Amino acid sequence: MTSHLSHHPALEAAASQLVAVGRDFYERGWALATGGNFSMRLGTNAMVITASGREKGELTVDDMVVMDLDGRMLPSNSGSGSGSGPASSSSSSRARPSAETKLHARLYTRIPHAGAVLHVHSPSATVLSRLDAPQGVLEISGYEMLKALSDVRTHQHTERVPIFSNTQNMEDLAHEVDAWMDAFGSDALHGYLVAGHGLYAWGRTMREARRHVEAFEFLFDCTLRTRNATRHAP
Ligand SMILES: CSCCC(=O)C(=O)COP(=O)(O)O
Ligand SMILES: [Zn+2]
């Protein structure tokens, strides 16, 4: 079966990676039902992102929307983002972009090396984000797995994962993320949590972004298990 992307190999390749990550994260329980969204950068000022409201374990390459980083839908034949203006091809009529598109776009704007952004609704991220919401940050140190995060060289590293309040207003949430990066920088940042909602993580490539999500999931799980064990210790 041909898809509406089949004449655009680079875009189709990115869409295939988004389909694959959706299936994998669904199977791991990190993107159940319609929870989560995934994107990849296309050139300097564009990205391809999953359509809103789709079951993330059942995505197809047609469930993708091409957007510029200012929030305009692009024709899906624009590929590298060279096109601009309102969409004229099938991508606009087939699908609306993720409700969280602004958060992805802001990350690509703020972090020029980011090539993929992954958002998951995993149980451990969701629970920890609620538990530590009052502090506004989750601090993790002492685990060898920290070294799976890019540029981390030692288990003694302290990873500070900011936690933002959840809201349905994505402009407000994007503003909170911006303000945090203005205050603390983004160089040491690999991801952030939204309270009661989930995790955002990114990487230079899809492979690195997936590794970061996996590492965070492991670290969140260990953190929860450790807290549980400590609570039940005699
Ligand atoms: C039960 S999913 C609620 C919306 C959400 O948080 C999410 O990650 C998926 O939204 P999208 O518009 O990208 O499908
Ligand atoms: Zn979400």
From TrEMBL:
Q: Which residues bind Zn(2+)?
A: 119, 121
Class II aldolase/adducin N-terminal domain residues are: 16-224
Q: Does the keyword Signal apply?
A: no
Identify the EC number(s): 4.2.1.109
- Top-level EC class as recorded in UniProt: lyase
Q: Which InterPro entries match?
A: Aldolase_II/adducin_N (IPR001303), Aldolase_II/adducin_N_sf (IPR036409), MethylthioRu-1-P_deHdtase_MtnB (IPR017714)
Which reactions are catalysed by this chain?
5-(methylsulfanyl)-D-ribulose 1-phosphate = 5-methylsulfanyl-2,3-dioxopentyl phosphate + H2O
Which intervals carry biased composition (Low complexity)?
Answer: 71-96
Q: Where is this region: Disordered?
A: 71-99
| Textual note on the cofactor | Binds 1 zinc ion per subunit.
Q: Source organism's superkingdom?
A: Bacteria
Q: Does the keyword NAD apply?
A: no
What pathway annotation does it carry? Amino-acid biosynthesis; L-methionine biosynthesis via salvage pathway; L-methionine from S-methyl-5-thio-alpha-D-ribose 1-phosphate: step 2/6
PANTHER family of this UniProt entry?
METHYLTHIORIBULOSE-1-PHOSPHATE DEHYDRATASE
Query: Which HAMAP family does the UniProt record give?
Result: Salvage_MtnB (MF_01677)
- Protein name as annotated: Methylthioribulose-1-phosphate dehydratase
Q: Please report the organism this UniProt entry assigns to the protein.
A: Pendulispora albinea
| Lineage, uppermost ranks | Bacteria, Pseudomonadati, Myxococcota, Myxococcia, Myxococcales
